[in-house]
Task: inverse folding
């Protein structure tokens, strides 16, 4: 039987990479990061335009640096380069295209994780740093089953050149619209009067695109229903009174109407959920000893890179050593 890992980190974005760095500095040798995308920091790589600024803090909610990882406001490329350098400097093994669909603690006290390729990973402790992308809330109105292939909750499987409606008013929605407008006829629809949930950078990008005609933006556009028109474009939206359009048709829709903690995944791992929030202690350990949450999962919708870095530091220094036992390759009394 293979020697179990000291630590398995699910997610190789800022939170996961920082967790690997902190664990390595604490003496852990058997570390493995699993990333569902084709490369580390895939969410930043996918959503941010070249040279777009990456903020250290979210909506001005800054925090002092607590651990080994820090970053200042910089461009997307600089941010990714710094994260890649951290991986290299600390010898962190990252397996990409490895989306984990199950984590479970066995009777022997070790965790078993299974990825989308049916590979099995065994570890003494697990940090979930998966964020909330790809797990957004669903609309309150019914989605016709016949439109399954035209309805999306992320940017996967969108054919180039086809019209897309993006629904939402937060940073994710605005970033989706910015990404999609290059290869799609894109409309961004939001039920509010202003993008109050988005940062100034994303608001500025969307305003510029709208002014230049690269993106159509509909404000106070509250969707009432979605129907299958039966012919292309098949998605027929009807809007509540006061919207710019009474109805409109598109080939695809992307919903970005708020991220939600992946409750089912966490509950299957044995973690306790209170309302929609996972129950964790001061070191972000769940009710399952040895299972920790980092980054967006414990940020209450107000995550940032510096908070992700700090959460990784607290996990390692505040709970991981005790939960996982002494790291392999270290000595002590």
Result:
């Amino acid at each position: 039987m293979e020697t179990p890992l000291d630590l398995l980190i699910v997610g190789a974005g800022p939170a996961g990479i920082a967790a690997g760095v902190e664990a390595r500095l604490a003496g852990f040798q058997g570390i493995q990061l699993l990333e569902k995308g084709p490369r580390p920091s895939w969410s930043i790589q996918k959503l941010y335009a070249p040279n777009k600024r990456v903020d250290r803090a979210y909506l001005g909610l800054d925090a002092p640096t607590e651990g080994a990882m820090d970053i200042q406001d910089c461009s997307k490329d600089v941010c990714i380069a710094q994260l890649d350098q951290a991986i290299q400097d600390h010898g962190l093994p990252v397996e990409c295209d490895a989306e984990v669909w199950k984590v479970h603690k066995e009777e022997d006290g070790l965790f078993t994780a299974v990825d989308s390729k049916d590979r099995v990973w065994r570890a003494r402790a697990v940090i979930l740093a998966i964020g909330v992308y790809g797990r957004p809330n669903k609309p309150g109105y019914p989605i016709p089953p016949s439109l399954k292939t035209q309805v999306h909750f992320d940017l996967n499987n969108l054919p180039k050149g086809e019209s897309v409606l993006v629904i939402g008013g937060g940073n994710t929605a605005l970033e989706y619209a910015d990404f999609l407008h290059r290869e799609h006829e894109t409309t961004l629809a939001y039920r509010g009067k202003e993008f109050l949930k988005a940062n100034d950078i994303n608001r500025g990008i969307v305003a510029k695109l709208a002014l230049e005609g690269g993106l159509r933006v509909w404000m106070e556009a509250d969707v009432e229903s979605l129907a299958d028109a039966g012919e292309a474009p098949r998605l027929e939206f009807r809007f509540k009174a006061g919207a710019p359009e009474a109805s409109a048709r598109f080939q695809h829709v992307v919903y970005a109407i708020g991220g939600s903690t992946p409750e089912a995944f966490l509950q299957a791992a044995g973690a306790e959920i209170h309302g929609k929030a996972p129950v964790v202690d001061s070191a972000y350990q769940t009710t399952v000893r040895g299972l920790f949450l980092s980054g967006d999962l414990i940020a209450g919708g107000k995550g940032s890179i510096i908070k992700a870095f700090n959460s990784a530091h607290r996990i390692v220094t505040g709970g991981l050593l005790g939960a996982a036992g002494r790291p392999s390759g270290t000595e002590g009394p």
